[in-house]
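Lecture 7, part 2: worked example. A protein chain together with protoporphyrin IX containing FE.
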Amino acid sequence: MGFLQWLENTDFSQFIASSTWASLVLLCLHAIGMGVVVGILWVLDLRVLGFARSLPFAAFKPLMRLAWLGFIVNAASGILLFSGAATRFIINTDFQLKMLLMALAGLSVLLLQRSLAVAARSPETSDVLVVPPAAKVVAAFSFLFWFGVILFGRQIAYTLARPAA
Ligand code: HEM
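Predicted complex, written out as structure tokens:
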């Protein structure tokens, strides 16, 4: 907790916590990053689950780079938002659940990419990639995990403890 107290009391974190427009800009960046990363990954999950079959999996290669950019924007804006009230966020159940679901969501993306890469190399796959059933299960969980990240992320603002007077 010592480090989080130090982080929260730095001049920069105090500026973020007290400045309305700094929080506004960071929350806007957080929303944009979320739209990019979750938007692309939900389309990938739905494609794996059989929607938009005409969309080739090769199209996701450049899109995944964009998704990583969206995640980096969210990590940067999220850490800055976090720094302004670190000791209150770290004990907030919604924040903890969001971080847990984000770790599971990240793991599911790695598993999905690996499963699709293996399927793409298999001799059965001629020009149309045959999606293994396990990849569909991972895609369904990935979809739900990202939904949970957004749900609990949004809930934080309602459950975050007030600053000590
Ligand atoms: C792709 C990953 C992420 C997604 C989809 C996401 C999503 C969200 C959403 C939907 C909110 C609610 C925003 C609002 O109240 O308008 C939020 C808030 C927040 N997120 Fe994230 N987030 C992500 C990554 C991160 C990371 C890596 C951190 C780092 C610690 C983080 C820290 C926060 C904090 C501190 C808040 C609360 C802001 C506040 O209410 O003042 N987020 N997030």
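Residues 20-48 form the longest helix (29 residues). Residues 2-159 form one domain. Keep this in mind for problem set question 3.
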